[in-house]
Design brief:
It contains three helices and ten strands, in the order E-E-E-H-E-E-E-E-E-E-E-H-H. Strand 7 and strand 8 form a beta hairpin. It has one domain: glutathione-dependent formaldehyde- activating enzyme (gfa). The protein is globular and about 40 Å long. Strands 6-7-8-9-4-3-10 form a seven-stranded mixed β-sheet. The protein is of the alpha+beta class.
Length: 164
């Protein structure tokens, strides 16, 4: 998970009404191949950078939060530009508002964050070839098995603070 020396990463929507900044590298990056992500994105997968909500700053504009169904039945909140409707990040029920799943494609330099893991590969499109050397699991996974220790510590801190 080498994301070079940069300490912040800017992104936004297509119409540039909404601009945001991640103030650190993400904890982990998922490439999700589930059918729900395929349907939501209109393509083969969603690429999400998991990061503490407090490390995502709005630089310009406001987002519109849309409650959207999810496979778990608990739903997700997708934050979109109210003008061009581009999805910028999601929040899922498991971590609530504490962790954002930033859509890597909305970053100005998305090449910095390739996937750390491919998930729900049991439903991936058959023409998608997964790279060697990147973990891939048929469904979801245990973060304890795949996340770096520093990312697990960050996650534990933000979840503990969210419970208070």
């Amino acid at each position: 998970m080498d994301h070079s020396q940069a300490t912040s990463f800017d992104g936004g929507c297509d119409c540039r009404q909404v601009r945001y900044r991640m103030t650190s590298t993400p904890m982990f990056v998922h490439c999700c191949h589930c059918r729900w992500c395929q349907r939501e994105t209109g393509t083969a997968f969603a690429l999400n950078a998991l990061i503490e909500a407090e490390r995502v700053e709005l630089l310009q504009g406001e987002v519109e939060v849309i409650d959207t169904p999810s496979n778990s039945g608990k739903g997700q909140k997708i934050s979109r530009c109210p003008q061009c409707r581009i999805a910028l990040w999601s929040n899922y029920a498991g971590a609530g508002d504490a962790i954002r799943f930033v859509r890597v494609g909305s970053l100005d330099d998305p090449d910095r964050f390739p996937p750390d893991i491919h998930i729900y590969t049991s439903s991936k499109q058959p023409w998608v070839l997964l790279p060697a050397g990147v973990p891939a699991v048929p469904e979801y996974y245990s973060s304890k098995l795949y996340w770096p220790k520093a990312s697990l510590a960050r996650r534990a801190l933000v979840l503990a603070a969210a419970v208070r």
